[in-house]
Amino acid sequence: MNIAISSDHGGNTLRKEIGSLLEELGHQVTDFGPQTKDSVDYPDYAKPVCEGVAGGEFEAGILICGTGIGMSIAANKYKGIRCALVHDVFSAKMTKCHNNSNIIAMGERVIGAGLAREIVTTWLASEFEGGRHENRIKKIAEIEASN
């Protein structure tokens, strides 16, 4: 799978950990940084991941900041993006199975690397169930199109 990943300064360490995990799992990873610990603005680093996922360049995206909140808010402003803030394995599974999320956001200051690895592995292994959930995704797209 071709996956984009990015963070702000608050998610730098966890981003590198998750990037390594993705490579270990055999995925192609594009890391949009940042490459320093200097303070940066998370919307700037969410942008290339969201544009790439929405445009079909990447199959999935992972965004990390201190809490994951800012990244998830920024990501969900992009048409075609369904980004879920996840800090537990069950939510990671359900956001793929029911919401067909194409990006997840996590907070480095909220969870540790071990849990983050489990979350990512579970999310990537889960599949959208379709069925009744497909109609709900279509309704979300209709709301998005009307704005």
Automatic annotation (TrEMBL):
GO terms for molecular function: intramolecular oxidoreductase activity, interconverting aldoses and ketoses. The active site is at 65 (proton acceptor), 98 (proton donor). Keywords: Isomerase. The keyword Flavoprotein does not apply. Pfam families: LacAB_rpiB. D-ribulose 5-phosphate binds at residues 8-9, 66-70, 99, 109, 132, 136. It comes from the Bacteria. The keyword Isomerase applies. GO terms for biological process: carbohydrate metabolic process. Belongs to the LacAB/RpiB family. This is Ribose 5-phosphate isomerase B. It comes from Tetzosporium hominis. The lineage of its organism: Bacteria, Bacillati, Bacillota, Bacilli, Bacillales.
